[in-house]
Amino acid sequence: MPASESAEFVERASCLSCGSSRLAELSAGRFDEGAVARFLAEDPWGEHPAPFLRGKRWCYVACQECGLAFHRHVLAPAWNERRFSRWMSQEAIEAFEKPMRTPAHLFARAADHTAHVLRIELLTRGPRGSSAPRVLDFGCGYGGFLATCSQFGFEAHGVDRSAAKREHNLVATVHADLAEVAGVAPFHALTLFEVLEHLDDPRGVMLQLRDLLGPGGILVLETPDCSGVRDIVTRSDYLKIHPLDHINGFTPSTLERFATALGFERVHKPVALVTGEPRLAFRQMAKRVLRPLLRATTQQYFRKR
Ligand SMILES: [Zn+2]
Fold first, then answer.
1. Structural contact between residues 301 and 220, judged by C-beta atoms closer than 8 angstroms
2. What's the gap in Å between 184 CA and the centre of ligand 1?
3. What is the gyration radius of the CA atoms in the chain, in angstroms?
4. Which of 206, 260, 268, 295 has the fewest CB atoms below 10 angstroms from its CB?
5. Measured in angstroms, how far is the CA atom of residue 20 from the centroid of ligand 1?
6. What is the Å distance from ligand 1's center to 291 Cα?
């Protein structure tokens, strides 16, 4: 594809969650104008996407039935493949992730993974009896969460579309797609950390994943909280609803509605105390008591009905 060629987009004309065609435009613009053009220029890239996006428009809409917000136009499959392989080169990904590799970030992430492992162990005791929890992490990246699961004796499988990430993963069992993983189903728990916001068809993917989860299985969903984000003005808006990357903008209520419509029921996230600081442990326990008064988040636990 020569640089003079234009990226192709496909339209998502109905709601990704409830199927309604009553969509209201929240904001729109061009990739080569305003804040979006400026932020795109500042990001690290392999092959720079700007020449291919000249004159192209983005449009952020909200469903009038269920409230889910998303980008109406998404890259056509061939162009999305080019984005993964050439625009987001290995070097660009490393440059982008470098600020997240500080000791404080790595510590917080490992503690977070451990807390999820403790909760999943607790919540899956009924369905699995004395056998090891079998976990599928969809969109597992380099397998950081799977590595933690393995250390706790779980049987951990992952799926990731990025060949580079599969090859450099920290554990052995990372599959390229769901067809590959179907042979090792059913699982006791299914996790999607920072994945739903990237999917062209999140409902379609979740329907396939639901079938891989055993009866009473646990689903953990975590996405950025896009509450109040209606337009791309600041860098924080851009990071939350990046029109090439974060194409679905969930809030606590639209995330819960999305999962409920798929046959899951919300369960309370158990307290998992992973800290050496009594002050933080106390805060976690206080949160448990105050739960009804606190704002919901976009990290939610569900059980398959
Ligand atoms: Zn809807």
1. yes
2. 33
3. 20
4. 295
5. 5
6. 28
pLDDT of residue 3: 53
Distance 22 CA to ligand 1 centre (A): 8
Give the helix/strand (H/E) hosting 118: helix 103-123
Instruction: Give a yes or no: residue 186 inside a domain.
Output: yes
The model scores a pTM over 0.90:
yes
d(CA 59, CA 229): 13
Q: Is residue 114 part of a domain?
A: yes
Find where tokens 């987001």 sit.
Answer: 88
Q: Using the mean position of ligand 1's atoms as its centre, give its distance from the Cα of residue 248 in Å.
A: 12
The alpha carbon of 240 and the centre of ligand 1 are apart by a number of angstroms equal to 20
Residue 11 falls inside a structural domain = no
pLDDT score at 2: 54
What distance in angstroms lies between residue 258's CA and the mean position of ligand 1's atoms?
9
For residue 23, the CA-to-ligand 1 centroid distance in Å is 8
pLDDT in tens, 90-145: 888 888 888 888 999 999 999 999 999 999 999 999 999 999 999 999 999 889 99
Residue 77: the pLDDT is 94
Please give the structure tokens belonging to residue 138.
Answer: 């969809």
CATH code of the domain covering residue 290: 3.40.50.150
* Structural domain contains residue 294: yes
CA distance 27 to 113: 35
Nearest to 251 by CA among 218, 269, 220, 229: 229
Structural domain boundaries, residue 135? 101-202+209-222+264-304
- Strand order, beta sheet including 57-63: 23-30, 57-63, 69-71, 248-249
| Euclidean distance between CA atoms 155 and 136, whole angstroms | 9
- Report whether pLDDT(171) > 60: yes
Using omega within 30 degrees of 0 as the cis cutoff, is the peptide bond preceding 186 cis?
Answer: yes
